[in-house]
Amino acid sequence: MEPNNLNKEQDKNSWVLKACTLLSKIRDQSPLIQCITNFVSMDLMANTLLSAGASPAMIHSIEEIQDFTPNIHALCINVGTLSPAWLPAMREAAQVATKAGKPWVLDPVAAGASGFRLNACLELVGLKPSVIRGNGSEIIALSKASIGASKGVDSSHESMGAMEAAKSLAQSSGAIVAVSGAVDIITDGHRIVGAYNGVPMMQKITATGCAVTALIAGFVAVDPLHALEATASALSIFGIAGEIGMDMANGPASLRMHLIDSLYNLDQAAVSSRLKITGL
């Protein structure tokens, strides 16, 4: 085997080991993941976490934050159906999680679509999330702190086109930044990796992006000191479940079902044969 190919094989084996170890930890530890999320995504996010082995809690009332949030293992905040009434709970949960030393993940849905939404997302970024996961347009909007062309919650930019924005945002925020797309980009502002798993039809199922953000929170919960590796592993694992589900699906509705089943049944052999994560 050529040296370059040997290095690639060793790198792949290392990522397979990381991903499988983290998935095994989730299944063994069943971390409690609090999700303050949108009305569209609650069901799929909860089922994604459950099928991976985590314990979801869709608690968003500000009256419960002080009692509940210190006991979680990770927090996921998603601004999809944002309203002024929800912002104080998001803000307080992020602050309580940080104070308690618990990681939290931000999904800045349609961040550049309006001034209200952008300002809310920028305020949350200032509360030091461990990971920020969005599409290309969302990450560019946060990086530039400006409203931009978008198609609602859909991206107008490919993930690769948002790489420099992701690096800049990671450096300014201190968070791991992940950009979802045909290739998922993950960066700490210096190191960059790409995850290549998944199928296009996953984009035809509402809340798959939200669901993978919740899964990232689950992975980071069991390895908070290696958030980049946890984030890349979660994105790849979710993509692999989509690939396996696609082999049995007839369309988006059946893919949704098979995606959840495939994540639940995922084993090391499937991860080893399908995982595609490389340095960029």
UniProtKB/TrEMBL annotation:
Pathway: Cofactor biosynthesis; thiamine diphosphate biosynthesis; 4-methyl-5-(2-phosphoethyl)-thiazole from 5-(2-hydroxyethyl)-4-methylthiazole: step 1/1. Keywords: ATP-binding, Kinase, Magnesium, Metal-binding, Nucleotide-binding, Thiamine biosynthesis, Transferase. It is an enzyme of class 2 (transferase). Transmembrane segments: none annotated. Pfam families: HK (PF02110). It comes from Dovyalis caffra. Thiazole kinase involved in thiamine salvage pathway. This is Hydroxyethylthiazole kinase. HAMAP family: Thz_kinase. It catalyses: 5-(2-hydroxyethyl)-4-methylthiazole + ATP = 4-methyl-5-(2-phosphooxyethyl)-thiazole + ADP + H(+). GO terms for molecular function: ATP binding; hydroxyethylthiazole kinase activity; magnesium ion binding. Belongs to the Thz kinase family.
